[in-house]
Amino acid sequence: MELLMRAWSYFATNILEQPAFMIGLIVALGYILLKKPWYDVLAGVIKAIVGYLILTVGSSGLVSNFRPVLVGLKDRFNMDAMVIDPYFGQNAVTAGVEEVFGKGFGEAMVLLLIAFIVNIILVRFSKVTKMRALFTTGHVQVQQAATAYWLIMFACPFLLTKNVAMLVVMSVILGLYWAVGANLTIKPCQELSDGAGFCLAHQQMFGIALNTWIAEKFFGKKKNGKEVKKIDDVELPGFMSIFNDNMVCTSILMLIFFGAILVILGRDYLTEQGFMTEGQSMVFYVIQTCLYFSVYLAILQLGVRTFVTELTQSFQGIADKLLPGSIPGVDCAVAFGFGSANAVPIGFLAGFVGQILAIAVLIVLKSPVLVICGFVPVFFDNATIGIFANEKGGVKAALILPFISGLCQVFGSAIIAGWAGMAAYGGYVGMWDWAVVWPVMTAVMKFLSYAGIVIVAVVLIAIPQIQYRLDKEGYFKMTEDYEAYKEMKAAKNN
Q1: Which of 152, 320, 383, 493 is 20–30 Å from 241 (CA)?
Q2: Residue 345 and residue 383: Cα distance in Å, rounded?
Q3: How wide is the angle at C-alpha 360 spanned by C-alphas 356 and 365, nearest 5°?
Q4: pLDDT tens sequence across 231-282
């Protein structure tokens, strides 16, 4: 048993927690099952790993480049608050789980393993379960396993002395969440990418599905039946036409919003904290910091283009031989390579305004839990929601829905993190699903005990069954033959 745990620990640390190598492993397995020559397998693996590493450089650059803004807001105004960010949330669990529950964090990694196996089994029997998505973003799985570990122990204290029963409950709930959540994003992703063959497996899967539906239902059609204007369809007059260029639009918006915040923080603070060097020009520091947003976004999009093709082509081997009808769930940043590029900064900024407004409300109401924005939720949630909202509901949806998302992230995180005790350890994951869906699931399990666990599991199991019954003919065709699916839909519409 000890040998197996060591092997799992090595795999989790070096492959599962390193999504580039996890993607490389999936590509290798897929191409081998397709009986590709060894040199094609090698080339595909290299391109997939390098592409994901490029994406990682872009994502990490976005986070680190705006650290002065987010850290400064906390320090400059002397706010003792919880940061909503997946990494802060994971650190909070690591710091507090033994003190609060008397459990070690290592058990969360066992939870991850079993939940991942549950996900695989659910997808393997997709004809029965109707779940078609395999969650492949390992670093996100680690963060979610940590948070779910805390929330389920908090919700089910009656299982704390029953280690096996607790682990089974955690694994089933988390495995179902991964399979069902990623499955919900299949239709939006296939339609956004014109059948590229991926879905999203991240922290806002239910949020994407719900906001896409709202955008289509309430914003998607004008009264005269015409399509609404998307961001790229808006014709800006005169000098404003420069905003039609994504790089220019992103750079100017960042200069206006975040440049103003950096100026408010001031030279003395930025120099004292090491963000600026002594004697450096404040003007050019602000310009460079804000323009780097466009640089890292371009890098991220290059990474997406590099590895997505290899992943989706190779995954066909896995789908054909091991997991029929399935597709891989990948990082939400992959969506940035599709749809309107300008939806990314617009969704981000709308969500940021929503978060700032919600934080102001918490301060005014003297909330016992104060929140500081984390870049990961405010950018990756709201930019992603902005892309899907714009695709289905146009400009209004791309502005309104991320704004509402920002409100949900702050209020929902403050409620659940304060209630469950994570706020005392300085962080909570803070992203859409964990600020909206998981608080509801936690409350149901907390107040209804064993019946609550059953209700949560049954509802999750029922969601893909309902999806299937709403489109029996196209449900599996959507992942198996998207061109045939489009033809079928076109024929029905005509």
Answers
A1: 383
A2: 6
A3: 150
A4: 877 765 665 565 566 677 778 777 877 788 788 888 888 888 778 888 888 8
